[in-house]
Amino acid sequence: MPHAIGFVDNSGGTLAHYKMLDKIREVAVASGFWTVMRYDTSIANRELILKGQGYSGTEEIYVGVRTYQDASADYYNICVATFTGYVPSNTFDTQPGVRLSGVPAHNQRIDYWLTVNPQRIACCMKVGTPVYEHFYIGKFFPYARPSQYPYPIICGGMLNGAATTRFSDTSHSMPYKGNRDNLAMRFNTGVYLRPETWPWNNTYIAGRDGSSGETQLRDTNENYFLLPINLADTSNIYGELDGVCYISGFNNVVENTCGEEWVVLQDVSRTGFTDFIALKMDA
Known about the structure:
Layout: E1 3-8, H1 16-31, E2 34-40, E3 47-52, E4 61-70, E5 75-83, E6 99-103, E7 110-116, E8 120-127, E9 131-139, E10 141-142, E11 153-156, E12 183-186, E13 192-193, E14 196-198, H2 203-206, E15 227-232, E16 237-246, E17 257-258, E18 262-266, E19 276-280
Antiparallel strand pairs: 1-7, 2-3, 3-4, 4-5, 5-6, 7-8, 8-9, 9-11, 10-16, 11-12, 12-13, 14-15, 15-16, 16-19, 17-18, 18-19
């Protein structure tokens, strides 16, 4: 069960974002790639910590998801995380090498596209008005040998830390456009970097050239090309995301599909030509 498409709601008296947490656990465990290290539903901010085996089957990849909410402020969010290890006595937020990013969710209905493979968990949730909220936790494909870059992980959510931001906020954005605090790449130094991403950092493909406005790719005879999302800075290209690609929004619509494996998803409420990604539904 490496992917799931469906919805959760607040039927039965359990809030939807709590059910979303359980759905992530269910799909991850059913895949056979992830082991539950902690799952605590006895507290208001429910917690899930998982260990993945990677494509080699021998790796230890630590990720987590917890809920946080405030009924008075009317937000019901999840917080995604990456770690470098797991200490049972530590709190969620003080696990080794922790990096956190909030993702606005909902207490009512959440539609989801959730995909799991041995090295990462990625998801898009449709909530509220509606808007589309994304996360990616786990490894990416490094352009380096394992001995050179042994733990290339990404913590990508929608917010800088567990911010108290409701889904109706108009400023937050998906991590994939890069060069922002909600896309954190752990480097060999132990520091989380804020990489740029290609093609969004390319003026001629997905940027603004300052004279003719927004530039972008478009379809060719109704065929859309998926471009890998590369992680980079001004001097280096570090690797690419696993199962998330750039796709042109020209004459395109959210929730379109590309064959049987890919679904087109937008950045919150944005529908510009450069506001779409394609997420692979792992088989």
